[in-house]
Write the structure tokens for this entry.
Amino acid sequence: MSSILIIEDEEKISRFVELELQHEGYGTGKAADGRSGLEAALNGSYDLVILDIMLPELSGIEVLRRLRKESSVPVILLTARDSVTDKVTGLDMGANDYITKPFAIEELLARIRVILRNAEAQSAGSGADEKADSALLTSPCGIEMNTDSHAVHYKGRAVELTNREFILLRILMENRGVAMTRERLLSEAWGYDYYGETNIIDVYVRYIRQKTADDVIRTIRGVGYMME
Ligand code: CA
């Protein structure tokens, strides 16, 4: 059975999550500050880490940054309700998902199941078939994207995109001429629902526009976004 590390300084929350996870049959470990949490995540043989952002010693973001230098263990961040910046930073730094406090335990358990299932599928080698139809995607607005090398050019100029920005832009390119709702973009780009927190998409669209041009992605009022 999978084993899960909980890094959370609020004893009430971590104890509650621990009991629920054990009830579901998971093995568990706990750490109450960033430093010991990072150590446990690096040295323990955990299949997944639940990581609070506001932690003593080292922040959750800093734990994640250091963890990702050595480990690709799946991470779910616990974030404060209104901190879009934390979420975006966390995802860019390699968090697999986040959940906003206060959360329903069923929601956390559902996220955990999705991530563990994906991790299993990946280690079973199902990624091989993705490579077959790699291609150069182009759009009339001047974007050129190599889905193999992840190189992106705008009007001949190289554009540095983060992994999340790349995925979002790729989905828009693959659906050119289709007005995409934020919900659909979220689920196609990230693979799961963010339960209505679609303002994340607006943040990423803004980043992509800043790195290319405003007219690269069209805003469709009342719907979402589209590439011509
Ligand atoms: Ca905390």
In short: The radius of gyration is 19 Å. Residues 133-226 form a domain with the Arc Repressor Mutant, subunit A fold (CATH 1.10.10.10). Helices lie at 11-23, 34-43, 60-70, 84-92, 105-123, 163-174, 182-190, 199-211.
